[in-house]
Automatic annotation (TrEMBL):
Pfam families: IspD, ISPD_C. Residues 268-401 form the D-ribitol-5-phosphate cytidylyltransferase C-terminal domain. Gene3D superfamilies: Spore Coat Polysaccharide Biosynthesis Protein SpsA, Chain A. Belongs to the IspD/TarI cytidylyltransferase family. IspD subfamily. Pathway: Protein modification; protein glycosylation. It is found in: Cytoplasm, Cytosol. It catalyses: D-ribose 5-phosphate + CTP + H(+) = CDP-D-ribose + diphosphate; D-ribitol 5-phosphate + CTP + H(+) = CDP-L-ribitol + diphosphate; D-ribulose 5-phosphate + CTP + H(+) = CDP-D-ribulose + diphosphate. This is D-ribitol-5-phosphate cytidylyltransferase. Cytidylyltransferase required for protein O-linked mannosylation. Catalyzes the formation of CDP-ribitol nucleotide sugar from D-ribitol 5-phosphate. CDP-ribitol is a substrate of FKTN during the biosynthesis of the phosphorylated O-mannosyl trisaccharide (N-acetylgalactosamine-beta-3-N-acetylglucosamine-beta-4-(phosphate-6-)mannose), a carbohydrate structure present in alpha-dystroglycan (DAG1), which is required for binding laminin G-like domain-containing extracellular proteins with high affinity. It comes from Scyliorhinus torazame (Cloudy catshark).
């Protein structure tokens, strides 16, 4: 049995691989503003890129889902242009983004962000106002691959330093041209970084910076971190971010984003087992066999309050689940619970979810040989699930100790 698998099966042992986003806490309040009020000129499509579909789901909904999974971020303000207000509201309703608050944007990105911040200030927002957070995260709605880890790192750094932002190494060298279009000078690439998102700020600092912005800043500025340095003397802490923070800007970025989503969804599986020895053993064997190709977690099925199983399902990190079941061939309650949790997590709105129930039947202890035809209840459940984009498969393994020994 693989060490990792064995460790994972110890009760109280935290999930070894990808965390389901539920364990971190902060002792200060955090909100987020997602600017989504642009028109996407560089993409050149009639629909602004934040509303373009990725695997049948609008891009903005994918970004929003990432933020909604992070429980320590309280309010999530989405800034959209007036003409897309209705569209945004319908997306919120359709995909159940219960934590999103929509605010009207403006002509430039900086103005849109400022409008988003005003929603936290009394008498500054035309609609309602929200409780002012200590730290606010700003993140372009068109950067859908943001993870909790980098959000956490910028938020905590902002609390300490006043401002923080994710950076990445430059891909190309930056050059300056002269008035005639010839090279004036080139920058030493290793010394510079690309400024990405998310960025985070203590609320008062970024708000004060925006209050002092000139028309020029609002119209031509592209960097929030620059504003806090210029107007508040706050030098941002820069944090190396992961490679997937890039901004969807051109059409090709949409194709790349879709491929990335597909790849990550097909590369992880979560295996649930009961407490029985055979189920655990099979779970570990499967993990050993699959982990060369994909990320595999094995968890003992439990639905208590702190359950890692619930976290794993609601995290949105898994679209493949295997449940190993022993000697219970009717319709195990656990399968019904699993299907309900998947439905509640709204996973299948994005991509089909695959659930494989493995029935282990020990012929020496069972009263009779089980046949596939005996699973009528699960058949019904599978039909219902199919309509919700969940594919439920069953695998029956009739075995004896003799075959076990032979393996
Ligand atoms: N008036 C604006 C302009 C931009 N944004 C948002 O700021 C983010 C980053 O901006 P960018 O990639 O430049 O988006 P667009 O302005 O839409 O694209 P383009 O510059 O190609 O027109 C996007 O989520 C965009 O919707 C905004 O909220 N309000
Ligand atoms: O990377 C940035 C973070 O500082 C950009 O300034 C931001 O994403 C704005 O995008 P754009 O200028 O392309 O509208």
């Amino acid at each position: 049995m693989a060490e990792a698998a064995r460790d994972n099966l110890q009760p109280n042992r935290p999930l070894l691989c990808k965390q389901a986003g539920g364990n971190r806490t902060l002792d200060f309040s955090v909100a987020a503003v997602l600017p989504a009020g642009g028109s996407g000129e560089r993409m050149g499509s009639a629909t602004p890129k934040q509303f373009c579909q990725l695997l049948q789901r609008p891009l903005i909904s994918i970004t929003l889902e990432r933020f909604e999974r992070v429980h320590w971020i309280k309010e999530i303000v989405v800034v959209v242009s007036k003409q897309n207000f209705e569209l945004m509201s319908s997306i919120i309703e359709h995909y159940g983004h219960s934590r999103a608050i929509v605010v009207e944007g403006a002509l430039t990105r900086h103005q849109s962000i400022f409008n988003g911040l005003k929603a936290f200030v009394v008498n500054q927002s035309p609609s309602s106002w929200l409780e002012k957070p200590e730290v606010v995260i700003i993140h372009d709605a068109v950067r859908p691959f943001v993870e909790e880890d980098i959000l956490f790192r910028v938020a905590t750094a902002a609390k300490e330093y006043g401002a923080a932002g994710a950076i990445r190494p430059l891909v190309s060298t930056v050059v300056a041209t002269n008035a005639e279009g010839y090279l004036d000078h080139s920058l030493e690439r290793a010394k510079y970084r690309a400024s990405e998102m998310p960025q985070a700020f203590t609320f008062d600092i970024i708000y004060r910076a925006y209050q002092q912005c000139t028309d020029y800043d609002f119209e031509y500025g592209t960097e929030c971190l620059h504003l806090t340095l210029k107007y508040c003397g706050t030098s941002a802490k820069l944090i190396d971010g992961p490679p997937d923070l890039w901004k969807v800007t051109y059409k090709r970025d949409l194709y790349a984003a879709e491929s990335l989503i597909k790849e990550s969804l097909s590369k992880s599986v979560c295996i649930f087992t009961g407490m029985q020895k055979e189920a655990v053993q099979l779970g570990c064997l499967l993990q050993e066999a699959l982990q060369l190709m994909m990320e595999v977690d094995v968890l003992t099925w439990s639905l208590n309050k702190e359950s890692q199983c619930i976290q794993a399902i609601s995290s949105g990190l898994y679209y493949n689940f295997i449940y190993i079941n022993i000697n219970n061939f009717d319709l195990p309650l656990e399968i019904v619970q699993l299907m309900e949790l998947i439905e509640n997590a709204k996973l299948s709105a994005l991509y089909p979810v695959v659930v494989t129930v493995v029935h282990l039947n020990n012929l020496e202890t069972a009263s009779s040989c089980i046949r596939m035809e005996d699973f009528t209840n699960i058949k019904e459940l599978a039909k219902e699930a199919h309509q919700k984009n969940v594919l439920l498969y069953r695998l029956l393994i009739n075995y004896t100790q003799v075959c076990e020994a032979a393996q």
